[in-house]
């Protein structure tokens, strides 16, 4: 639950050492500083969210809610809420990718697409993707870490996510450049996301931003044209073709996978490590390795890497005792809603009320949820799989980033 301290602006970008830093022992304080460094308004919004149960209207922002049931009512109601009109993320994407987004992203084609793509990421295919994409790089990192070397997990997360993108999209990459090549892929995704999702106030993109975004999309998906006809059904491209998507749609969906699954996943990886350390919960997890699944779910809940989900109201409706009017906007404060359930506990059981609100809900529920979980499982294994605890040596919060994340999180055994 946000406290007065949450409203104090942090010293942005300062390297913190938990031994020296008076607040270092508090996982909650670190999470709040991380949010604040990313977007200074976030802690204020979260604080306002305390009052938004079920709903609150904020001048110049619109409606906000931090109530899980109200949040799900919004996300499960395509009759009254859309992400396609101005104010929604689909509207941004349509300007970059084309008008097909209006059908396939939220229109009648969306249901069909989701039904057909349901099997893209299952628990099994996701574990396979992780092994295939990260294999030896993760093994190397683990060996060095377990032998006592320091590891910047925030940097490694960006590299690993870059490797995942390369695997999923079959992107040609000069592997001889090592980590640098994958960092670059991550940064490209970051750049695209900052254009496509970087505004919550106005979703009309100026022509120069549309042109830049289209150039990036072409850089990331230009190769798909050649691969489309022959790609194996084991790859995302082949799977998209098999489920009947056109080349344009496959390129579009690949772009979305890349944008939706890069910063969010990297953010969760380093923040999971920080939480395990700051709360001391790593010791309980080491004693009870069977709690791994809970530990991962809890990390997703407490970090909620996509802290806000926006929608536009399409038609007047009554919700939570208030009247929402067509044309208004509403923001679901996922971070607040999820954190109100309590602090990080590796043995906390599933919370039926919250379900997996960190992945959204309803027709747009995260397509990559199983992949994100498989990635976090592998990271938790890296951290404590040898049965020994680790410590955070230093950390630096990412400043002015779309998805709150550690810029650096150096850990050691
Ligand atoms: C911890 C990591 C992740 C978090 C917290 C997360 C969160 C979310 C949320 C909240 C949404 C719903 C957005 C909305 O309703 O407007 C979403 C949608 C989506 N996510 Fe994720 N995501 C994560 C990882 C991934 C990964 C790894 C992938 C794939 C590689 C992915 C692919 C997608 C796609 C394609 C959608 C759009 C689904 C649709 O509109 O039908 N996500 N994600």
UniProtKB/TrEMBL annotation:
Gene3D superfamilies: Cytochrome P450 (1.10.630.10). Keywords: Heme, Iron, Metal-binding, Monooxygenase, Oxidoreductase. Signal peptide: none annotated. PROSITE patterns: CYTOCHROME_P450. Belongs to the cytochrome P450 family. This is Cytochrome P450. It comes from Antiquaquibacter oligotrophicus.
